[in-house]
Specification:
alpha/beta, two-stranded antiparallel sheet, 18% strand
Length: 174
């Protein structure tokens, strides 16, 4: 379970996921992580300014990620949908994304925890946002953190593990 975080929501989800599936949890921004040592990966990242925070790490490790099953978990205020899909598509290469199962989780934003710059940028975005609900959330914050929302990720990990043991059993028969 690899993640990047800025304000902590993604780290909290990573801990929950790691605990639920029994995988170690590592922050790619503070730890030297070699993705080639894993059969499959769960990559969790916040969306900051319409870009995935883990983008640079993925770009740096593309050759080690090639062909590896990956569950990409995004954490943001945006709900799943075309807007979020575009941000993901703009952040990472298409070839990489073709091998990824994406799960979108909603995060938490507490305005008093933000840097001055981030808070100012959100106020500007709120002023320009035609969606009144999103505009209010950009000004006042939100909290969509929900431990139960990791269930699809746990199911994907169980599926990847069962595929791995099936492949291992098949190679043993040969």
């Amino acid at each position: 379970m690899l993640f990047a975080t800025k304000y902590g929501s993604t780290a909290e989800y990573a801990e929950w996921i790691g605990e639920a599936v029994g995988l170690p949890v590592q922050d790619v921004r503070t730890q030297n992580v070699d993705p080639s040592q894993f059969d499959f990966l769960i990559l969790a990242t916040p969306v900051i300014y319409y870009r995935l925070l883990i983008t640079d790490w993925v770009q740096k490790n593309l050759s080690k990620l090639d062909g590896k099953p990956i569950v990409m978990v995004t954490v943001s205020g945006a709900p799943p949908g075309p807007k979020l899909d575009n941000w993901v598509g703009d952040s990472l290469p298409r070839d990489f994304l073709s091998n990824v199962s994406h799960v979108a989780l909603r995060g938490r934003q507490n305005p008093k925890d933000l840097t001055w710059f981030d808070r100012t940028m959100l106020l500007i975005a709120a002023w320009k946002n035609p969606d009144p609900v999103a505009s209010r959330e950009e000004r006042e914050g939100f909290d969509y953190m929900d431990k139960a929302s990791i269930a699809p990720i746990v199911a994907l990990v169980e599926e990847l593990r069962s595929q791995g043991s099936t492949a291992q059993q098949a190679s043993m028969k040969e």
